[in-house]
Every structure is written in structure tokens, then in C-alpha cells.
Amino acid sequence: MRIAIFTETFLPKVDGIVTRLRHTIEHLQKYGDEVLVFCPSGGLESYCGARICGLSAFPLPLYPELKIALPRPEIGQQLAKFKPDLIHVVNPAVLGLAGIFYAKSNRIPLVASYHTHLPKYLAHYGLGMLEGLLWELLKAAHNQADLNLCTSSVMVQELREHGIDRVDLWQRGVDTETFDPAQATPEMRHHLTQGEPTSQLLLYVGRLGAEKEIERIKPVLAAIPGSRLAIVGDGPHRANLETYFAGTPTHFVGYLGGKKLAAAYAVADAFIFPSRTETLGLVLLEAMAAGCPVIAARSGGIPDIVTDGVNGYLFDPQDPQAAILATQKLFAESDDYLNLRENARSEAENWNWAAATGQLQRYYRQVVGN
After folding, report:
1. Among 15, 30, 213, 238, fewest CB within 10 Å belongs to which?
2. Can you list the domains of the chain with their CATH numbers?
């Protein structure tokens, strides 16, 4: 099958959407499909055998890390040569609208997938009054598709409640070979704790954006005597966070990838994730694959991954003390803590990218067949 993917974000950017797309493209190509990717230009011409059509783009004013690529005639020319059996638009916003247009005008089967909970982001950027309008725009775009995919059962239900039709679940996946407890190294523990390896180490990994609510970790850090916090990642909110966490034992690490990121997860004592805007939270699965128990907000798609008291702890994001109590409970009893680590790894082993991509291929065949 020939599949044209339109995505608003791709390599060299690092985030959960790009991670899913990387593994999906890798497995689609491996299984014999042909993939053409339309995305903002990042200097790549191909990835795992898939051709990349990078389009010139400009930074989004509120979020300079995100690049906006506008539709242009080149897209139609490339599609005419490629002759796709199906078009898949990922988080349709600007470039994705071109994918929808060409799919409808050429009667090409269309799949759309929802990965970023944009309506919930708005309040964190002073635009909460636009949430209703954004849902209407999303509904108009997604209802053009023959199938809409979400990455958690909660988001499937929420899209349906907002009038989006033909919604189904695209199962989660994680690389359990890269992310493994065996990747822990004394050197990474020393680095993340800034030379205090015997201290309790709290870890956050992800984009440093206002919508991630990373400030909520500060009271937790203060409530665990002698603990330290490592924040891995980067983003437009970093300078504000550095000011907010000044004077605390917090280390802003920047981006890590590959085995270094796997080692960071594996040496941490707890992965703490306060975001209430997650459609899934892929970093949670990566942490769990490395045997790191999770403390996360009971919100969005997170309860699909974390079972409270089994492989981590969920807390009520409306209660300012809940994250503190959950973290204290995590560290209170050594036997339960070891069970949490083992259970976290076991849960992650249930999910892999080969199975997730196999499910996606079945969806593709269903849409094309219909």
C-alpha cells in the first residue's frame, strides 16, 4: 500500500508525536508499504526508506519550536507522482488541511489522527475563550475523514462527545529494548543528581511548555527531604521554569536521546508528570519500560497507562496536596516500591510498536476496502 502522511511536526523535532511517527514509518516500510511524508522542512530527504517532502516553514509565534508549513502546489505534484492508496493526516491544523483537500478532491481514502489536546492548551496561553471555536474547527476537519484515530480510550470518548464521528483507538507502543532497567549507569545517576547519587531522584521528561504545568513539581520536591529533581527536555517555557526553580536542587538537563535517555529513566527513583493535557503521555510508558514507577495526574489518557497503586500512583490534579501525598506514599514502603518497579516494566512489555503498526495497517485496509 502507498501511504501519504501529512504531519505538522517531524524530525529533527523531538516529542511524542515524532516518536510514534518514527516507529510507525519504520514498521510500515519494513512490512512492505511505501510511505511519503509531507512535513515542515528539517533537512531530511528520507527516513527508513520513506521519502520526506520537507516544506519551508516559519515558527509559530506562541511556540517557536513548532514550525508552520503552508500548503503549496508542490504537494499536488508530488502526490500525482506517488499515487497514494490512502492519505493519513496527523493532527490536522495547517499542512494537514492540504492533505484533507487532496484526499477529498481526488477521492483518496482519508485517515486522521488526534495526538495533541489543543483545546486544553489554550488556557495556558491566555486563549481559553477560544476553546469552543477550536473544537468546532477540529470537528469540521476531522469529520472529513473516513476514520479518526486517538491514542487513548478517554480521548476517543471526548472526541465523540464533541461531535467528531468515526472515532477508534490506535493502541499505544513503546520500545522495550531501548528503554530497559538494565540501561542504568552510575555515571547517569551522578549526572542527574549533580554529584549527590544517594539522594532521592525525581525525574521529569518532556516538552517544557506552559501546558505541562511543571511548576506543580516544586512543592513535591520541597516535601521530600534531601530529594533532587532532574528536568530533561527543552521548550519555550524553560527560562520561566529556571527562574521559578532557582534555589532548589533542580537540574535542567536539556535534551537526551537514545541510551542516555534510557539511562535517565532507569536511574530515577520516580517519574513525576503533572500535565492535565495529555492524550496519552508516551514518556510515561518509556519510564515504566525502564522500571521507573510513575506519579501522574489522573487526567486525559494517563489512566489508560497507569493503574493506581499497581505500577505507579495517580493523583487528583485539583488537589494541591495530592501529588505530595502520592510521592510520599511511593517512597514509604520498600517492598511495595520494588513491586511497583516490576509492575511498571511488566505493563510496558504488553505494548510494542510492531503490534501498534499492525493494528494501524488493519485500519488502513478497512478504510481502503470501504
Report:
1. 30
2. 2-173+352-369 (3.40.50.2000), 181-348 (3.40.50.2000)
